[in-house]
Specification:
Blueprint: H1 2-18, H2 28-40, H3 44-57, H4 64-77, H5 81-94, H6 101-115, H7 124-139, H8 146-173, H9 177-190, H10 196-210, H11 214-227, H12 234-250
Length: about 250
């Protein structure tokens, strides 16, 4: 049994030794290739050491932006999204002519996308992700990752819309109707292209009815029917509109 453990220990030791190479006599380009191989086989700790060493030792070399890019990618690979975002930002700000600029901008946005939490929590990372994805789309409109960025933008905006919508619902349940209306208005104005916009307008109409603000409720009902003719709440809003028209006509 002892011999078996000894053999396993020796095998692991030899494997660990074989996973690293002596880079002393390598050219910067050879060291970069070696570091990229480490990254590709997910030997991330060694890859990070190599990329950081290359950046420090060859600050004016043509390989520095490669090392910077792959350093950021390695951090992302490890799920270290805050550190990855920092490294991608360094490339974007310090190396604006880099061939990796477009991908770095996309990956910076993707770091914040990965950091974006459940809608009920603080949404600062979500807002950063939206800002960076929009920058990517604006700067690189023909990039093949634009469709993916647009899908993620939609998802992130839906999350922010849901947060405001749920806040409005909470205020409505607590009978803080004015606060609820403010949040419903925000959903409609800022997130008008999300699924929460018609829900917000429908709920706002009902809050206005509770507040006996019938003229406003009628106006919002007409708006709802014009903007969302195929919404699931159309029939209910038509009934509200008809009832309000009769009421306001008989009691001008």
């Amino acid at each position: 049994m002892k011999n078996i453990f000894a053999l396993i220990f020796i095998a692991l030791f030899l494997f660990a030794c074989s996973s690293t190479e002596n880079t002393t006599n390598m050219t910067p380009e050879e060291r970069l290739d070696y570091a990229i191989r480490l990254y590709e086989r997910e030997d991330s700790e060694e890859a990070i050491k190599e990329f950081e060493s290359l950046i420090l030792q060859y600050p004016g070399s043509s390989i520095v932006d490669d090392a910077q890019y792959y350093l950021a990618k390695t951090r992302f690979q490890r799920g270290e999204y805050i550190l990855a975002a920092y490294q991608f930002s360094k490339l974007i700000k310090g190396m604006p002519s880099s061939e990796f600029l477009a991908d770095a901008q996309y990956m910076l946005a993707d770091c914040y996308y990965e950091l974006s939490p459940n809608y009920a929590l603080d949404q600062q990372s979500t807002k950063h992700a939206i800002e960076e994805f929009q920058t990517f789309i604006d700067l690189f409109p023909l990039n093949d990752k634009v469709p993916v960025a647009e899908v993620k933008l939609t998802e992130l905006n839906e999350k922010l819309a849901k947060k405001d919508y749920e806040n409005a619902r909470i205020y409505e349940k607590m009978e803080y109707y004015n606060a609820a209306i403010i949040y419903y208005n925000n959903v409609m104005e800022v997130y008008h292209d999300t699924k929460y916009a018609p829900l917000a307008l429908y709920n706002k109409i009902n809050v206005l009815l509770i507040k006996n603000r019938n003229s406003e409720a009628l106006s919002e009902s007409i708006k709802f029917l014009e903007k969302y003719p195929n919404d699931e709440n159309v029939k209910e809003v038509e009934k509200i509109k008809s009832s309000l028209e009769n009421k306001l006509t008989s009691n001008p």
